[in-house]
What does this fold into?
Amino acid sequence: MSLRLAGRLARRELRGGVRGFRVFLACLALGVAAIAAVGSVRQAIQTGLTQEGAALLGGDAQLEFTYRFANEAERAWMEQTATAVSEVVDFRSMALVQQGEDTQRALTQVKSVDATYPLVGTPVLDPDQSLPTALDGAQDLPGAVMDPVLMDRLGLSVGDRFALGTQKFVLTAALIHEPDGAADGFGLGPRTLVRTEDLQASGLLAPGTLFSTKYRLTLPPGTDLATVSDTAGQNFDGNGMRWTDARNGAPGIAEFVARLSAFLVLVGLSGLAVGGIGVSAAVRAYLGQKTETIATLRTLGADRATIFQTYMIQIGILSGIGILLGIVLGGLLPLLLTPLIEARLPVPAVFSLYTHPLAEAALYGVLTAFLFTLWPLARTEEVRAATLFRDALSSARALPRVGFILATGIGLALLVASASWFSGSARLTLWTAAGLVGALLLLSLSALAIRKLARIGTAPARGRPTLRWALSAISDPREGAASVVLSLGLGLSVLAAVGQIDGTLRNAIAGNLPDVAPSYFFVDIQKDQMPGFTERLESDPAVTRIESAPMLRGIITQINGRPAREVAGDHWVLDGDRGVTYSAAPPQNTRVTAGEWWPESYSGTPQVSFAAEEAEEMGLSLGDEVTVNILGRDITAEITSFREVDFSTAGIGFIMAMNPSALAGAPHSFIATVYAEEQAEAAILRDLAGQYPNITAIRVRDAIDRVSGLLAGLAAATSYGAGVSLLTGFLVLIGAAAAGETARRYESAILKTLGANRRRILFSFALRSILLGAAAGVVALLTGILGGWAVATYIFDTGFTVIWTSALGIVLAGILVTLGAGLVFALRPLAVRPARILRATD
It folds into this structure.
């Protein structure tokens, strides 16, 4: 009976419209829209990757081998299983252009192909021609096509000549579109496309050099990819083969998109938390205006349940409207911006209205509205029939009954569980939730401290009336200082944390480069080239240090006779091939943390020294056996020592080092790092590349610039998400300023009656906003610095430095935003006539 009556009462109250709930609707709609938009873009990319998986991959399936070609048995299985097979070789090299006596060099990611490439898709070339025609060449030289970026870098035009290793090519076209480029992942240089048979005399594919082969397959119609994948795994178990198929043609991009979207959804949840504060404030202000109505209903016999249900129904209906607006906005926005988004994406995306991300956003909106409206609604029980005073609701006790507290806990648990499920990262979600709760607690305590300090500061402010008025207003709990600090402070906290993380990573990269990082990585150095290579560098006074080591690549397939992933899970060491070296004695500056290195003349069963930190993460112990597939051959070695490996120096670091006899006979090359003065780098590259054209030089500064570019894109995306939180906080701030307009009108009337002029009253209002904005900015800065330190220390495992330019910008933003909102809603109070206001006041 009470629910039916509550519904009738709620319907009648809603006839008055949504006045007072505009901020409520805006906050909820904006937060839901942000999450819905991110989810819709993520779903569009995933759909595009699924539908265009074969085109992205270059076939229905792919078998990849590390630094070797497929053997006869492997090739025979592919020919028997597939209707067509295409062989692709991928590696890095130096493109050389002779211009008179000057030689231009640039790093390039080379893809060499056979006559059947591509199985799916069509390359786009300029001038327009088929790929076979372009690779046929001219001028008695084989042809090549090249990324326009690399052409510009080397000053090449169509018809010009260049060399890869010792083989010369003629450039026949610019590579405008590479159909399977997304599946190749991150490369350190722009693309060059040639035929594999034209590289036979180049010296770039010699035994032991660093390359990978990819065999793309076209399968008969109706083939079950899962079955073929299982068959390939059984036939080639332990040979280092890696399988990819059209179900996920670009796994690296798919994983990156999933991780980025998960992080952005969590940033969106931060925005919802900010909006939740506005929702809570709007509900509390609305119920404060309904105190007399509630008391009247209690006088007429309405019980607590009826009153609670009446306003719960109202808030539920309004929440539904806000969530619906957010879903519509979040679903339509990606559709409207489709051309702009597609232009920025390296992969196909199919934009449409997807129900899954919209339902996910709606669930977040429902749980957020429930969490932030339950406590204000619970306080309606405190209004008694005999209480017909305007401030009765504000004088209610701070905590509701135990049942409401338990319901809030359950709602919070559901929200965190949902975010963990949808984001796919429970750890990141829990840390985000803990950070938000901690930030809210800190901001709440700060709001109380600000009010108390303002109350204390009113006495010393005697003789300065404008300051005293401002401090008195801040100390008044009805003036909304807590709402300003919470809403604006949380939005600024998210933005501050993003700014600190981005600046710290950039400083870590830029700061370590001159003092720690080498100038060049040299790879594919043949053993007979090492004496001359070393002699050139050791005779150069500008070279401060040279490090070199034999270089092989291997895939860990088993640990103690069991599949490696069953033992160590999804650790990054098992994700692809890893560097392997050998050494009779511990290399210089090597620190063995446990166990012992093998004797220099040791020639027994294989032994391996493993990186200590990674071994601990994988659960390895001394005496464990690790099986590594190197060039198709399984080598099982006992772990006899752990050693410290510091990958942060950008120097040579190997996960595994074996005794020399364990790798005897395995073809391999050498890798070297060279530390030199920057002004000598060009001469070093010129001499070594000219003497040894097969060697590939990777300039560390260029590689770090590419990584920095990726970080900049990630930082921009997260900044947009943080900007949504800040915008929501601004809306809450506007709502708080609008709600306090009546109080400021009365205050203005009193001050005018006492002789204050408009200028001093306006200055008092502005000073109040400046003080609150500065307080919110400082608290947000402290919270953001703490969050940035935690992420830098525990997630990125790097040092942390406060970025003061970003920090001061956050404080300034807090002041300007609060000042702007405060002044907008101070204009009408300044224009009031004191007599009219005071006459209308009881």
